[in-house]
Amino acid sequence: MDDRPTYWDMFLPTLLDRLSFHMHKDLDERVKKYGLNSHHVQYLMALSIHDGQTLVGLSKFLDIDNGNTHRVVKLLKENGFVYDDRKDSRSKKYHIFLTERGRQVAEEITEAVSELNRQYFSELTSEELRVVKKVSSTAVGKVLQSDVQQVEDSTPYFVRLGSFSDLQDDQKA
């Protein structure tokens, strides 16, 4: 077998990057009314899945560095989407929770993400969606294999987000 890179090997990262770019762009349009962008959204969605995480726990849950998480949580807090349980302003360890507003926006965002996924993948059959989900989960799991931090119920975040599952369930209905 030839070990030289194939066109597909070189094209796949570009394809995934373009898909991600357009997904973020479309989601940015949906959330700009809240003063958010698609990168902020993942924090609200993560907290809607597993509320009350520490800053470090949230960073690990999303596989994002602590500095970025700190900046985004600060913005979300200033805009009334999240709060924390600090005893005083110098507390180093605290938990982050969605406010009622944050919970409502997270629900709207979850529906928007599901709607966008239905649009993106509307041409696929249920079986093709199962394959996409399986391949995606396997690839992400392989990439993150040494770094994946699991939540308390031991399910990695990328398995719990489930937007492909939602899409598949919608198509069956």
SSE blueprint:
Blueprint: H1 7-31, H2 38-49, E1 53-54, H3 55-62, H4 66-78, E2 82-84, E3 95-98, H5 100-120, H6 126-143, H7 157-160, H8 163-172
Antiparallel strand pairs: 1-3, 2-3
Helix pairs in contact: 1-5, 2-5, 3-4, 5-8, 6-8
Task: Explain what the structure shows.
It is a single chain. The termini are far apart. By secondary structure, the chain is mainly alpha-helical. The chain has one domain (14-172): Orthogonal Bundle (Arc Repressor Mutant, subunit A), CATH 1.10.10. 64% of the residues lie in helices and 5% in strands. The longest helix has 25 residues, at 7-31. It has eight helices and three strands; from the N terminus they run H-H-E-H-H-E-E-H-H-H-H. The protein is globular and about 60 Å long. Mean pLDDT is 81; it is low at 146-154 and 160-173. It has helices at residues 7-31, 38-49, 55-62, 66-78, 100-120, 126-143, 157-160, 163-172; strands at residues 53-54, 82-84, 95-98. Helix 2 crosses helix 5 (100-120), helix 5 packs across helix 8 (163-172) and helix 6 (126-143) packs antiparallel against helix 8. Strands 1-3-2 form a three-stranded antiparallel sheet.
Content of β-strand: 5-15%
Span between termini = 44 Å
- The total number of structural domains is 1
Name the helix and strand elements from N-terminus to C-terminus, one letter apiece: HHEHHEEHHHH
Short structural description:
The protein is mainly α and 173 residues long. Helices cover 64% and strands 5% of the residues.
